[in-house]
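INFO  loader      accepted 1 record
INFO  loader      residues=167
INFO  predictor   begin
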Amino acid sequence: MNEVQLLRRQIGTERAHAREARAIAAAAGTATQAMMGRNKNLNPSISNRYVKYIEYCMRMESTRALGHIARLATHSPLVAGEEAALARLRRTLEQHVPLDGTVGSVAQYVSLLCDLVDASEALERFTERRYSVEDWRAVAQVNADSVLEERKLWGEVIEHGPPASER
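INFO  predictor   done
INFO  writer      dumping tokens
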């Protein structure tokens, strides 16, 4: 396995976790709706561990998206598909969803995170042929510290999150 494959594999793992986080948020939302039906004064919130994890994911994906935008500005002219994918990534990156820890805000935030992941992946179908190893290093933002941080945060989500049967 070469370096680019290792970088992309780690990014893929993080994105799979982000998608699983969306499923956790959906399960929490369903459970919360059932609880709120019984108690109208309930102000539900999601685990701080979970919020930390999705904030980490959003920070990493946003940084990667900005990296793609900067890198592609220095490359030869883009073809139509690349331009469309880059425009989609920019539009998604410009969206903002406040994160206050309630189930509703977390679900919206995770949805935006997954939209950003999808937009990045659409662009990366083009960049995989265009980027050098140096480009991938710059965009990926993957190093030993980031891998360990992601594993630690994700492990806390899994350890303290809902049972696997609810994901």
